[in-house]
Amino acid sequence: MKKIAYLGAGTWGFAIASLIANNGYSVSVWTRRKEFADQLEKTRVHPKLADARAPDNIHFTSDLAEALDGCDVIVESVTSSGIRPVFTEVIRLGKIQCPVILTSKGIEQKSGLLLPEVISELMGVKESPLIGCLSGPSHAEEVVCELPTSVVCSAYDASVMKKILELFTSPKFRVYPNSDLKGVCFGGAMKNIMAIACGIADGLGCGDNTKAALMTRGLHEIRKLCVVKDCKPETLNGLSGLGDLCVTCLSTHSRNYRYGRLIAEGFSPEGARQKIGMAVEGVYTCVSALQLGRKHGIPIPITEATYAIIYEGMHPKEAVQSLLQRAIKEEHL
What we know:
There is one protein chain. The protein is of the alpha/beta class. It has two domains: 3-181, Rossmann fold (3-Layer(aba) Sandwich), CATH 3.40.50; 189-324, N-(1-d-carboxylethyl)-l-norvaline Dehydrogenase, domain 2, CATH 1.10.1040.10. It contains 15 helices and ten strands. It has an eight-stranded mixed β-sheet with strand order 5-2-1-6-7-8-9-10, sandwiched between helices. α5 (115-122) links the parallel β7 (100-102) and β8. α8 (181-203) packs antiparallel against α9 (208-226), α8 (181-203) crosses α13 (281-296) and α13 (281-296) packs across α14. The model has no long low-confidence stretch (mean pLDDT 96).
């Protein structure tokens, strides 16, 4: 039985680690918090996923060296802002020689690097053949209940993509391969910003027409910006783009959507984050996307308005008005 080191014990980490374990692998799940690791090891139940029990072949630990010892594959679900510090620790413990599968979704601030690029840089190469990713429309709450789910995987190297398919595919969890690693990662990161915007719109009572417009124009915004990262725009028509955009903008399972809705209902950005109680990736990636847009001179109005609400104190109603007052141009797809 192959050993999988799983970094991150949030709801998504718990759900995917359970999926892998149910596929017959031994999984060692690492979390930085010792008390939480001990709690999960004892109860076998995640506090935010009370109806699901961890399979017996999952071990929880706060010892990173223990989790990595003898592993055949590393899978991660830490936050996008935590990728660099966590993998700096991983590399300090020894050279990475096995595949690394990313499931986090984000773009690093200031550098504008996608998460595979961050780890490649830490490994001292431009594109490490060991790195792959898993992305697409998938809520932990549904995956852990084994509801039918379709996602997409990608990697720099075809052999790693094959390993991902073997590791994650199950009768209820369908994985499609896609060779555009950057496009897959970019779509997964950017949709979180649009979900915050949709949550704000719903919280203001703007209606389904508004949300449909935000999602459609949001996808257009993502496609415009993706070219600066050498992504294939057509990738964003698939599961990691349109698919993930739909599930994140339309579901109350989505933290990003709920975060936006809370702000529209009167919570401060920090108050909304505390109310959610887990990472809201769109808050972090909103900064990264805005930096990319400004650097390359690409207007991304929905992202700009969302940033203004979160970081500059703009009232949500004012942000909506600013979008409605933009000059109308011919629709280009």
